[in-house]
Amino acid sequence: MKWLCYCVISIIANIKIGHGGIIILCTAFNSAPLRAPHQSTFQLVRPRRILHGSTPTAKSHSIASPSSLMSHQSSVEDPSQAQKECDHPHTRLWSSALNKSPNSHVHPSIELVIRPPSEGGTGIVAINDIPANTIVMSLRLEEVDMIDATSILDSYKLHSKQDDAVFNMLVEMWEKDLKPVKKSGEETQEGKRLAVLAGIVAHLQLSRYKDLSSSVTSPVEEGFALDESRRLGAFLDAMPLLPQHSTEVNRHPFPTHFLFWTDDEIEILLQGTIAQTKAREVRAGVGLIVREWSKSFLKEHSATVLQADILNAIFSAFASVLSRSFGDAAGRDLDGKGRMLVPMVDMLNHDSENPNVSWKWHVGVGDEEMIVEGKGDIAVTTLRDIRKGEELCKCYGWRPAWDIASSYGFAPRLVKERWECSVIPLFPAILDLAPDVISTPINNARGGASLDLLLEVNYGPLVQAVVAAVDASVEIKSKMNLNDDLANNSQMPIANDSDRPHQLNRLEVLSLFRPPPPQTVDAYPFPRRQPVVVVGTKIASDTDSHNLDYHRLAIKSILPAFRAAASAISQLRHNHENNISSPIEASKMAIAAASIDRNTDWDIPALCLISHGIDERIHTLLQDGKNAEMWLEKVASINSSEDRQSRVYVSRHGRDAELRVLECLRNEVAELNVKS
Ligand SMILES: C[S@@+](CC[C@H](N)C(=O)[O-])C[C@H]1O[C@@H](n2cnc3c(N)ncnc32)[C@H](O)[C@@H]1O
């Protein structure tokens, strides 16, 4: 079936290994504590006119820099341009949401600005100076047509006709898999909850599309989906239905999202970066869900909508939900609610380095029940004084550039200073762990080479052993009441880690995709997964000498994993040299990880491994970056669309961020190596 072929093409099998894993489908916005914001000295007023934006004059913006988002020309001189902007679905949504909601308010000093997706798309700007602590937006949730899965699925269940194949499937998915969210593995449910919301959006958008294009001769079928798509029409229109239905006025806002990249772009532009792993994960995850949903969506829509368009609608809905939905840790998640789409607040762009607004769920004291019911106000408050012309940006939550790209389709450019991550291979290729070196006598006798570390299948048990050793070392050390030697013995001051993102405190092992090495390319001509450890520190655009303590903490946090890896490698070598076939001993790895081995100081081999790994990563990133640029030069003559340009920024900024982290850490490891 054509549909299935299309889906299968986009499914690239990928596994996550290691500890805790990563939540692929993460929250788009920070959740809010349940306290009322500081009282603003400004009175909120309803806007007197329909707000419209204007197009910045500079055309050569990079998509990824928050500061580049801020250019704003506040008067629209070209009347046809002004008309276009008034016709834009975001402008229409803005005014229709306020018209529907007598209890929602927008500060008169803010305005929408409509820009092309390559310049960050729509945003909100200040048209006058606004002081700190001002509430600039206050939206009554029950009036502004927020979309969340629970409310919509609950209303469906109350509807007189419950014969909608898509809704029945989504209700089943929600009730079977998601209701008891608190039970176990809560993190893993995040992706599924997000998927159900995407399924609702795709179904309603397809229903709306059929409704708008229906005729007297082919009327659209009455039912819950049609009613809801009419009720939520303005909001659904602000999330375009399909890439091919975008117009000059309303460009598809997600051309940079990994779901819409070509296979070549994923393979070549992202080669060598961890963003490629994320892109494959997102595409594979969505591909699998699409395959599961195909029967129900085809039943409801294939009579009037092309299969390729249905598929695109689902992809668009995923991109919308990934990049616009609020993660709600305010308590509603725990009741099986949670992911929500809220108009207007979702026009705020992201700035992790210097955000100037934040949002809070605002209910009166003692009214917390309202949050469970999805009621109350979302209030957006200024964090500092905002100058006329500045764009209002919030921080979507700390995540490394590659992860931001996988949800939002852009990679932030470093402006001044921020926390960022890269990865370091646990077993760098330079160790020359090729089959003839490392294979055991038993494997040799069988004519096999099962310890060929160039083959991913052999990494699984080793990585698991490393992760288990690190876990065991934590226990050992807490029982023995020990801290980490490296930090304790160090002459350097220990960093105050209070602003270090908590995500960096756990060991995370991911797979990096590498081209097959020459030794095994003929037998296995597929990309290989190389296990890599995530490492993060604070990077700066100028000098980062004041961040040395953070770099030291970064190395310290990954050291136990590399001590365990060094112990595993040493055992493998020893076994090989002595013709021993016994497996490596996990307890030795744990003792190495905990740094309590009386005979060996594992810090030295571990730092050596880290150092080789960093050199290998820097080489890989630079080399693959050059290849990507050469490919770009070649294809530029054939296709140099704006969309491709935006994707190039994602690739370059993602690569730069990783390189910056590695360079900082390289110096720090050299320093520690000398000391040890
Ligand atoms: C919540 S929406 C914000 C409104 C959005 N600009 C629009 O046109 O609808 C998030 C999306 O805005 C864009 N975006 C947000 N912050 C950005 C930034 N700093 N640089 C580039 N694009 C950004 C990305 O396309 C992202 O997926």
Automatic annotation (TrEMBL):
Matching PROSITE patterns: SET
UniProt-listed Pfam families: SET
Name by which UniProt lists this protein: SET domain-containing protein
Listed InterPro entries: SET_dom, SET_dom_sf, SETD3_SETD6_MTase
Region (Disordered) residue spans: 54-89
Domain called SET: residue spans: 108-397
Organism of derivation: Cyclotella cryptica
Ranges of biased composition (kind: Polar residues): 54-83
Gene3D superfamilies: set domain protein methyltransferase, domain 1 (3.90.1410.10)
Highest taxon of the lineage: Eukaryota
